[in-house]
Amino acid sequence: MTISSNATAQGLERILAELADSCPVERARLEAAARILNAARRATGLHVPSSEATRAVAEILRHWDTEAVTALEYAEALPEAALDRLLRAAPAWAAAASRALTKPDRHAA
Q1: If you write DSSP's letter for every residue of 5-41 in order, what string do you get?
Q2: Which end of the chain is flanked by fewer CB atoms within 10 Å, N or C?
Q3: Is the CA virtual torsion 59, 63, 81, 18 positive or negative?
Q4: CA 87, CA 89: separation in Å to the nearest integer?
């Protein structure tokens, strides 16, 4: 086997091992968390009213170093409780952020 085909085989072996060990539902949860994190980052300048959901998303977002890891990598590293909290808070946070986007804070400079 040549170096090139050996590297290809090793790469394929790693991919197959990841697929064999992964759960599609868990992967979907992580991808959803990454989408939430990216949306929250983009919505950072909005004046979203404070609530349990907005505080949860903001707290989890605050610890993400966007220069060091992607949203998916950050989501994968979150403790299970934080991931669950983010996913539970997302619908209420998104609704509040959507309202803030369509009705900007009139008191903002």
Answers
A1: HHHHHHHHHHHHHHHHH--HHHHHHHHHHHHHHHHHH
A2: C
A3: positive
A4: 6
Q: pTM value?
A: 0.74
Of all helices (H) and strands (E), which one includes residue 77? helix 71-77
Give the angle subtended at the CA of 25 by the CAs of 21 and 31, to the nearest 5°. 95
pLDDT digits (tens, 9 = 90+) for 9-52: 888 887 787 777 777 788 899 999 999 999 999 999 999 999 99
Q: Which amino acid is at 70?
A: T
Classify residue 63 by its DSSP letter.
Answer: T
pLDDT at 14: 79
Please report which helix (H) or strand (E) contains residue 93, including its range.
helix 80-102
